[in-house]
Fold this protein.
Amino acid sequence: MKTIRLEAPGHLALVSTAAPDVLQADEALVRVHRIGVCGTDIHAFNGRQPFFSYPRILGHELGVEVVETGSEVTNVKPGDRCSVEPYLNCQQCIACRRGKPNGCTALRVLGVHGVGGMREQFVLPARKLHPSSKLSLEQLALVETLGIGAHAVERAGVESGEFALVAGAGPIGLAAMQFLIEAGAQVIALDINAERLSFCREQLGVPHIINGAREDAPETLKQITKGDLPTVVFDATGNAQSMMVSFEYPAHGGRLVFIGLFQGDVTFNDPNFHRRELTLMSSRNAQPQDFTRIIRLLEAGRINTTPWITHRASFADAVRQFPDWVKPETGVIKAMIEV
């Protein structure tokens, strides 16, 4: 079976691996058709992904087709096109029992903590498949990325009309913006990449953009919000400096949500934090209902994913093209591998 494997930082290889195992009663065998390349894959390629070991088969943004199902599977059938929810949870720990499987104490994410989807076929629990008869395989591969943004916005309890700042205009930040717009928020995008900020404005319709390399972000935020500052701030950078500076951005009584993460400690000024009575929260991955909701929105045409995919490659060419995708000057928003 053809497989792309990350042998070591900076070294992808097209290799042959064994065929998938025999199905258990609650599992499904899927054929992989589309693989989205995400920040986790890029960090792993660059040797900067936390909690990671090599060699590793990457890939967790997947558009797949069901080939075979176990005897107890009822939610999908052979031939169904599906998005994959790549978060394998235990279903027994305190988080799972309380309806927060994305925070499972033993969570394993495909392509991060275990074997991923950069291969022709694999087996997974059928409950992790979300079918659609209307969406393309590329749209289905984008559902997981969108889910991370959707979950963060849901977790923050965003209300219509409030100013919402997103720091970081990569795919996860863009996903957050997409669902902030859906929620009726007044969205502000902050980044240091002018091309990505232009994408926010021209493709997503974000009304306010701030180039942090050229503008004083706090002052510009005050101008946009007429002195109030945003009531909710999302940091999707995974950059330590950005995350620690972001404590300066929320209004009094506001919320700060960390979507991105880095391997280290976050520090902040406690008097400033208390004086504003800020709420600080993290947002991890997404939940099953996020996948269901996003598929419905995509099917209804409420979300347009067409501009997202800026680069494509066949499975055979992906090994050669991947090193270019990690370079900022390439202008990649989302690269898609076609299997």
